[in-house]
Structure to design on (392 residues):
């Protein structure tokens, strides 16, 4: 009897865990994390050096800087990069807190708290004509820009918090082949902006509560990859304007005024994104052509899509997108709607292979019932085996 009670309890635990997993993975329920933190009232002391009214400037003179200041160590090689870390700087409006320019040496700036830079063109961290830099785990707030990069390539910017700045969180101009990953850019004028910048990777960042765009690519920013970002509560989730051949994939654009906004865009792939609960359109295309949009999840937007372009493809030839307002049927149960989904707008576009249902083929409630039946069957079998043993 005790053995049976244990089996029942074990089964109930499994059913509880399974039902919780079902709820978590159900795409009918979208849980949004609000990133609305306020800047600290006091300096966050990240390290040993507290520089008030003093800024750091390196202009191709790392050796001299390293020799003169204890807060800089290293040799500038890939194995022993120059290191600026654990520094708190209140620039008091006098310029960029840290500015590195005309540098090809390997260096790392990490674990610094940087605020109150000067106005145009200053920032918490400024890189100008720089390669081989790593900007890691810094907090840049109450500056003109959080992190600003110009004419800089092959750098890594990761794990930073660039929030509550007057202009941009992370701003790149004429910058190529950089990696921008795992950063937070909230409550700025815009979050992450690329201008005339090519072949960059912008991934796994959070850009929320910005006055204008969460992420923007404009003015001939080509061949960039934007993936895995969470972009919510902005005026525009992502704006792409006057650029070509970018990839936007695996992002979440939710609770913005517009989710994905494309103006004069060519040959860009938009795939595997979620655009939901945006006030106006989930995705807009204006004067854009030869773009491919497929495997995206559009739901509960003011209007899911709008196309005023030319030759845009809303499927890849075999599968299209999920539309919560699709009114067709899937009579043959192949997972694809039997009639096209018509895209609003002057282009006359359509999704020829709308995804019928992205839920599992067995509803979660039926899974629960199935496990319950299995549990009952298991107990029945155990009881029968017990009776056989008594008869022997």
């Amino acid at each position: 009897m005790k053995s049976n009670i244990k089996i029942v309890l074990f089964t109930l635990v499994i059913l509880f865990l399974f039902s919780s997993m079902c709820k978590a993975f159900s795409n009918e329920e979208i849980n949004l994390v609000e990133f609305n933190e306020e800047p600290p009232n006091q300096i966050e002391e990240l390290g040993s050096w507290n520089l008030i009214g003093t800024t750091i400037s390196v202009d191709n003179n790392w050796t001299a800087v390293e020799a003169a200041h204890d807060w800089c160590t290293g040799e500038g090689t890939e194995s022993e990069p120059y290191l600026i870390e654990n520094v708190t700087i209140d620039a008091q409006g006098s310029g960029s807190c840290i500015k590195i320019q005309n540098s090809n040496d390997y260096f790392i700036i990490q674990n610094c708290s940087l605020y109150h830079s000067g106005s145009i063109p200053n920032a918490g961290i400024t890189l100008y004509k720089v390669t081989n830099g790593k900007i890691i785990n810094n907090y840049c707030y109450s500056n003109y820009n959080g992190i600003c990069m110009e004419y800089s390539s092959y750098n890594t910017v990761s794990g930073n918090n660039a929030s509550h700045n007057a202009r941009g969180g992370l701003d790149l101009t004429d910058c190529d082949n950089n990696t921008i990953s795992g950063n937070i850019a909230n409550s700025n004028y815009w979050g992450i902006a690329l201008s005339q910048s090519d072949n960059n990777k912008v991934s796994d960042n959070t850009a929320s509560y910005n006055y204008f765009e969460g992420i923007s690519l404009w003015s001939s920013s080509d061949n960039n990859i934007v993936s895995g970002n969470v972009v919510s509560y902005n005026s525009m989730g992502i704006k792409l304007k006057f650029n070509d051949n970018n990839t936007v994939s695996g992002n979440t654009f939710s609770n913005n005024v517009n989710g994905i906004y494309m103006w004069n865009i060519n040959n860009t792939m938009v795939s595997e994104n979620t655009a939901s609960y945006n006030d106006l359109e989930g995705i807009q295309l204006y004067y854009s052509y030869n773009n491919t949009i497929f495997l995206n999840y559009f739901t509960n937007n003011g209007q899911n899509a709008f196309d005023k372009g030319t030759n845009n493809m809303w499927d890849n030839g075999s599968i299209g997108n999920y539309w919560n307002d699709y009114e067709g049927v899937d009579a043959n149960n192949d997972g694809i709607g039997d009639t096209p989904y018509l895209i609003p707008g002057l282009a006359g576009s359509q999704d020829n292979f709308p995804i019928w249902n992205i839920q599992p083929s067995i509803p979660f409630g039926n899974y629960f019932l199935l496990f319950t039946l299995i549990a009952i069957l298991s107990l029945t079998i155990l009881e029968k085996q017990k009776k056989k043993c008594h008869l022997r």
Summary: Residues 53-188 form one domain.
